[in-house]
Amino acid sequence: MDALLLQLLNGLDKGGAYALIALGLTLVFGTLGVVNFAHGALFMMGAFCAVVFDRLLNVETVTIDETQTTPWGTPMEIREPYIQSLLGDFGAFLVDYSVPISIILAIPIMLIIGVIMERGLIRHFYSRPHADQILVTFGLAIVLQEIIKHFFGANPIPQAAPDVVNGSADIGAMLGLDGIIAYPWWRLIYFVFSLLCIAAVFAFLQFTTYGMVVRAGMRDRETVGLLGIDIEKRFTVVFGIAAVVAGLAGVMYTPILPPDYHMGMDFLVLSFVVVVVGGMGSLGGAVLAGFLLGILQSFASMTEVKSIFPGIDQIIIYLVAVLILLTLPRGLMGRRGVMED
Amino acid sequence: MDTNNNVVLHVADVNKSFGGLKALTDVDLSVKEGTVHAIIGPNGAGKSTLLNVCIGRIPPDTGHVIFDGTVLDEITPHEINQLGVSRVFQTPEIFADLSLLENVMIPAFARRDGAFKFNPIRALSAEGEIREKAESHLEEVGLYAKRHTDAASLSRGDKRRLEMAMSLIQSPRLLLLDEPTAGMSRHDTNTTIDLLKTLKDRGMTKVIIEHDMHVVFSLADRISVLAQGRIIAEGTPDEVRNSPKVKEAYLGESQQ
Amino acid sequence: MFGNLSRNDWLLIAGFTVLVLAAPIWLAPLGAGYPAIMEKFCIFAIFAIGFNILFGLTGYLSFGHAAFLGVGSYAGVWMFKLFSMNVVLSTVFALICAGLFALIIGYISLRRSGIYFSILTLAFAQMMYNVAYSVLTPITNGETGLQLELSDPRYLDNALGASQSIGLPRTSFFGIDISGGGMPGFYFCAVILIICFYLSIRIFRSPFGMMLRAIKSNQTRMKYTGFNPKPYLLAAFVISGLYAGLAGALMVATDPLAGAERMQWTASGEVVLMTILGGVGTLVGPVIGATLIKYFENIFSAFNENILNATFDFLPEGLRHFAVEFSALFVGEGWFLTLGLVFMIVVIFLPGGIMEGIARIRALFSKKKTQDDAAEGSVVAAE
């Protein structure tokens, strides 16, 4: 029982990442009608926002302390993040909390990247066939990840969560169970964070006039165009939001998975599967499928399951996707008339 | 007039609604072999829905469409075509990226080879017979000179004529025409009427949806009047012309 | 059967044959006249020709064709290990395996179209990659890749008493070395490429090929014309899967090593790029695309900082440093960046690929010519 609960929890943070990426993917598809293969790259670039911020904070000053010597007899070098020597305790706090704080940096950066991408490239592909959209965004994804690789190298760059939440929470105690269920704090935070992001996106769509137009656009693009609403501007904003959501998902994921240049591609394929399972163009479906598949994957990686079906955790998501597509052609929550033949 | 009394197409008590909207109500229709049967009615009367039900594009809620003993609403579109039912669409459905000749050759292959034939090594140029047949059908609709151009470059009227040739080359037993002259000039309309008249001699049964009363009355053997999803009158052109019910529902408003 | 292609098609085949067979001569000055790279050209050309039969004719974009290439290469190596080093046996078995996989995956994926089809093929390919990489290690040897070993049984070879060489045996075509890195290996691939090219022309010019184009143009119309598009699509899918399997078989025939990375979806993306770079739906486009990409990959990957420094030697110090830094983005490890950029540029500006570019230039000239003709007052009678 405890083991099952733990697996369920383990699936939540990954599911949260899937849900956030898939949410943006399906939002863009539903409103703009574009299949964005570069969406995973946005997730990856968000993660690298955290890396950059961390590096900026960790620019070090080196002072030589003549009074102390190293075991090799040379004067002791004291390295200290510049910001720490400049701002003292507050600087140390910044360094410690670099991951969550870099959200502040990531929002404007991802927004700008998203707007540039939409204005510069995606916009010109609205009326082109889906195959062309796939191909050009696929090309863009390669370009973005190779640029990151060039500047940051091919190896994963670990990022630390703030010290306070470095350990694990005892979920068992929290829920009043007997056994100890140790669950890393940061994963719990990520899960809550992903819920907050999802709630924010839904609230935006539900309660603002902007969101209303977007929702109407997802239902019937042509009509909204006919209403004389400046749909293009709204498209840009939608794309920007999707980019920010993917970016934030990336930022917060860095303590869980050290970012490397191809993490975007890895998550993209799975997120596509999530979108398809959830139903193309369905926001609720994307969230639901994201968590479901995350949890499913987590269960499949239990040793008990793997001893029966070796390697099932590697392929379970794809198997489910194939099954869903064949039995429920519109996915779990897809609407009629979206991308049908 | 045709004396053959075989019913070739029978629409039996078909009902169809979209959401809460009733598109067809208890539609019952019999088309006799070798006749031209026109379906007329005001806009939104359900004429196109009826035709779509006949070719398997839309499944009826209740009732059946029976062609020569086969229930059409239970089989796929290509099977319906293979039975000998061909359709000319309201908006021309053609192969825009292919040449006119290819457009007309394709349905000829469907008639000769069936729904699927795997012949990847056979050369197209060896199909002289099909090619000649296609050329003569293009000539019949006056598009022979353009046979090597892409269909996408045709005018709307030419596209309709091309589509007509694509249907005719299959020598269908039943031809369904959805407003074959819509958007055509008076001259083109007359040519089309003449073409359709010659087909009568080939023993082809035709169901035709049309707004243009000139076309209807110069072609049809029988007319059914559809209004708000129901058949309100049926008979020979003269009977329909003189029916007060029809005048009220339709003719009065559309014929000045 | 042979007389039905047009004169132009026969000229094309003849020209293609000459160019391919004479490749060692005309590629030598370009620095690519050695067998290993020319074999690569042939193999990827076959892969792209096959992919083009699906994508070019039907418009169905598969993002998982590398999986069939992978299946072909694993099947080939197993034949070498178990039975014989003769490439005929391995190639036939690779074709059977790739064909079966294509049949199953195609049957399922083709139940959907458009973007769903692309994602389904992608999901299948990724699943097969994961299976090959970690699940089925007894068959695929996982990360290391499947390779020949001295202890391999090679039942057929041993039963026939083939001479035991020292070290690992080489693949052969009835006694002729294929994997030795010599010219026979290239000519083996070249002949198969020519056959593949010929078959692709036959398919393009057949009624079957016309039906595939008609499906791409208007699938709905196809149904109401009396055709069942599904078997046509499945046949095209399997044919292109066979081409991919054949490419995989040749890969291991020339270098008997099969690894999972060949099945990754970036590898599938590469064949898409080859096809669109050359020209989707054209006969020679995929061959051109495949050759160009493999050629430039070879050149670009070889660049390193020293070569770059030497190249920009003529520039003053500061400028040289900048030039070296900048171009280092695109060469060596950065080759994929160049690939991605080319991908984008082609899709944005030249969706018809190089063949469309050639056609445009040709149209420009012929337009000029007709204008000249008109100026001279010559009247060309309309047909």
Automatic annotation (TrEMBL), chain A:
The membrane-topology field of this record reads: Multi-pass membrane protein
Q: Which residues cross the membrane?
A: 20-53, 97-122, 188-214, 235-256, 268-296, 308-328
For this record, an example GO cellular component is: plasma membrane
Main location class? membrane
Alphabetically, which GO biological process terms does the record hold?
A: amino acid transport
Task: Provide any one GO MF term from the record.
Answer: transmembrane transporter activity
Q: What is the protein's given name?
A: Branched-chain amino acid ABC transporter permease
UniProtKB/TrEMBL annotation, chain B:
A Pfam family (short name) is: ABC_tran
Signal peptide interval: none
UniProt key word ATP-binding: yes
Domain ABC transporter residue range list = 9-253
Q: Which domain of life is it from?
A: Bacteria
Q: Which CDD domains match?
A: ABC_Mj1267_LivG_branched
Annotated PROSITE patterns: ABC_TRANSPORTER_2
Entry keyword set = ATP-binding, Nucleotide-binding, Transport
User: What Gene3D superfamilies would the database entry show?
Assistant: P-loop containing nucleotide triphosphate hydrolases
The protein's GO terms of the molecular function aspect are:
ATP binding; ATP hydrolysis activity
A cellular component term (GO) from this record? plasma membrane
Protein's UniProt name: ABC transporter ATP-binding protein
UniProtKB/TrEMBL annotation, chain C:
Q: Which GO terms describe its molecular function?
A: branched-chain amino acid transmembrane transporter activity
Which cellular compartments is it found in? Cell membrane
Q: Which residues form a coiled coil?
A: none
Q: What is its main location?
A: membrane
Spell out the InterPro entries in the cross-references. Answer: ABC_transp_permease (IPR001851), LivM-like (IPR043428)
Q: Record's GO cellular component, any one?
A: plasma membrane
Q: What membrane topology does this protein have?
A: Multi-pass membrane protein
Which Pfam family is one of those matched by this entry? BPD_transp_2
Keywords (A to Z) from UniProt: Cell membrane, Membrane, Transmembrane, Transmembrane helix
Enumerate the transmembrane spans.
12-34, 41-63, 83-108, 115-136, 185-204, 232-253, 335-359
Check the record and name the PANTHER family matching this protein: ABC TRANSPORTER ATP-BINDING PROTEIN (PTHR30482:SF17), HIGH-AFFINITY BRANCHED-CHAIN AMINO ACID TRANSPORT SYSTEM PERMEASE (PTHR30482)
Q: What is this protein called?
A: Branched-chain amino acid ABC transporter permease
Q: Which organism is it from?
A: Notoacmeibacter marinus
Q: What is the lineage of its organism?
A: Bacteria, Pseudomonadati, Pseudomonadota, Alphaproteobacteria, Hyphomicrobiales
